[in-house]
């Protein structure tokens, strides 16, 4: 709370708050975080209870509509999501046109933006039915789009969704189910992925969610707003951190020096090296999501086989950190990204898909936040102020006189 200050601009006093670290620009009923206590709740329900008892499809309903569904509501919701998984044939052709070595994340944001061109009957931001249709289309098609991007980036043929399967099982199938007749879904893989999606489903006003709201505040449609959020998530300081953790662990393993000497480099701030997957703007205690994921990582790597050496390395780094004054004094604990990459890798995803997986999980939160924004009578177009620091009035010099 120290960098906030009031400065006098030409039009009066404005608040100077870089990174909006202390500015609340809206009221929200959706997600509650207590960073000091390490608490995260969706619509009042603790994240621990939701990951244990609920499913991603149900959590999406909860975030968007505000209440847990009744059995009938859940069945209808699930059926709607299954019905909308297919993409327009012309959309499928996009994936042939992207460069063979393209990263999947921009393929996904471009495809979501293009939904505005294919689904013109659901672009209204005022008609509740159309908003609901675009909601269902996004939730159902995003897994298909993500998997098509994955398979394109691997040079593999696409696999079509099977509507007999639920959202998460289908997601595994469209990513890995080739040839599809022989593909069997591992229940543990499905459970782990479901849980990871729940953990990522919302996190109040983070960079990508604020982007979705800001773009939407101009009354741009839901597809356009979500596409912007995906681009915001792509950055290494946000969703991109999950792949950075895995690269860091692999680098440490490949070097001769080991974890201890890497940690010395972090503490000495050598070349600005940071312990990726540690620290958080809001959590100054153990990130509750990281605690849940650590347990899942143990289970998945044990049963599905993964890189145990990397998991052991991650755990030893955590142990060193939790006993070291540098990290203790700065309240640096593992965040959600510290263990996720190890699980994604054990499930068979390449590193460049990790941030896409984050996007698939975060989608219900973005949609819920956009819908709250668009129906809130207090919403105004987002338009921050600035402190002008440029030159005063100058006279124009003709080109030949410069
Ligand atoms: N490793 C080493 N030192 C760290 C780390 C880290 N991961 N994170 C913070 N610090 C130190 C800083 O050097 C600073 O020390 P100083 O007081 O001696 O200068 C102090 O802790 C405070 O750090 P800030 O950068 O001011 O904290 P901020 O809240 O701005 O940053 C952030 C939060 C960006 C997450 C930071 O902790 C970080 O870079 N972590 C690594 C990247 C990462 O894991 N990002 C994922 C975040 S979670 C998500 O987006 C889903």
Explain this structure.
The chain has 402 residues and is mainly alpha-helical. It has 17 helices and five strands. The longest helix has 26 residues, at 128-153. The mean pLDDT is 93.
Give a quick rundown of the structure.
This protein has helices at residues 47-53, 56-65, 71-83, 89-97, 104-118, 128-153, 167-176, 187-200, 207-216, 222-233, 241-254, 258-267, 288-304, 308-322, 325-329, 337-347, 354-375, and strands spanning 5-9, 12-16, 31-34, 39-42, 45-46.
Features:
mainly alpha; binds acetyl coenzyme *A; 17 helices; 5 strands; 402 residues; three-stranded antiparallel β-sheet; two-stranded antiparallel sheet
Strand content: under 5%
Helix fraction, binned, reads 40-55%
Q: What's the tally of helices?
A: 17
Computed structural class: mainly alpha
Number of strands: 5
Please describe the topology of this protein.
Elements: E1 5-9, E2 12-16, E3 31-34, E4 39-42, E5 45-46, H1 47-53, H2 56-65, H3 71-83, H4 89-97, H5 104-118, H6 128-153, H7 167-176, H8 187-200, H9 207-216, H10 222-233, H11 241-254, H12 258-267, H13 288-304, H14 308-322, H15 325-329, H16 337-347, H17 354-375
Antiparallel strand pairs: 1-2, 3-4, 4-5
The site of acetyl coenzyme *A has 17 residues, from loops.
Keywords: Transferase, Tricarboxylic acid cycle
Pathway: Carbohydrate metabolism; tricarboxylic acid cycle; isocitrate from oxaloacetate: step 1/2
Family: Belongs to the citrate synthase family.
């Amino acid at each position: 709370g120290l960098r906030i200050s009031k400065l006098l601009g030409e039009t009066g006093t404005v608040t100077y708050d870089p990174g909006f670290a202390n500015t609340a620009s809206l009221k929200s009923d959706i997600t509650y975080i207590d960073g000091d206590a390490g608490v995260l709740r969706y619509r009042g329900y603790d994240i621990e209870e939701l990951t244990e008892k609920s499913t991603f499809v149900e959590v999406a309903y909860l975030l968007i509509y505000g209440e847990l569904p009744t059995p009938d509501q859940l069945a209808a919701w699930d059926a709607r999501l299954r019905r909308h998984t297919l993409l327009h044939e012309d959309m499928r052709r996009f994936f042939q046109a992207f460069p063979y070595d393209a990263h999947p994340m921009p393929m996904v944001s471009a495809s979501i933006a293009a939904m505005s061109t294919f689904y013109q009957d659901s672009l209204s931001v005022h008609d509740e039915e159309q908003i609901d249709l675009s909601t269902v289309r996004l939730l159902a098609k995003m897994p298909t789009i993500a998997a098509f991007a994955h398979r394109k980036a691997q040079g593999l043929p696409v696999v079509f969704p099977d509507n007999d399967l639920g959202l998460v099982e289908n997601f595994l199938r469209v990513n890995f189910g080739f040839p599809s007749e022989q593909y069997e879904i591992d229940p543990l893989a499905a459970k782990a992925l479901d849980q990871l999606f729940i953990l990522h489903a919302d996190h109040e006003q983070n960079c990508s969610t604020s982007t979705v709201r800001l773009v939407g505040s101009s009354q741009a449609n839901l597809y356009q707003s979500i596409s912007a959020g995906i681009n915001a998530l792509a950055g290494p300081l946000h969703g991109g951190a999950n792949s950075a953790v895995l690269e860091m662990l692999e680098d440490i393993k490949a070097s001769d020096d080991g974890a201890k000497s890497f940690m010395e480099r972090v503490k000495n701030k050598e070349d600005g090296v940071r312990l990726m997957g540690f620290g958080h703007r809001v959590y100054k205690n153990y990130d509750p999501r990281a605690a849940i994921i650590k347990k899942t990582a143990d289970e998945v790597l044990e049963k599905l086989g993964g890189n145990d050496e990397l998991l052991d390395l991650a755990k030893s780094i955590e142990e060193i950190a939790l006993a070291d004054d540098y990290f203790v004094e700065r309240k640096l604990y593992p965040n959600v990204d510290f263990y996720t990459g190890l699980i994604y890798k054990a499930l068979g995803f390449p590193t460049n898909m990790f941030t896409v997986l984050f996007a698939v999980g975060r989608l219900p939160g973005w949609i819920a936040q956009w819908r709250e924004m668009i129906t809130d009578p207090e919403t105004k177009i987002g338009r921050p102020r600035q402190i002008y620091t440029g030159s005063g009035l100058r006279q124009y010099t003709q080109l030949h006189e410069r």
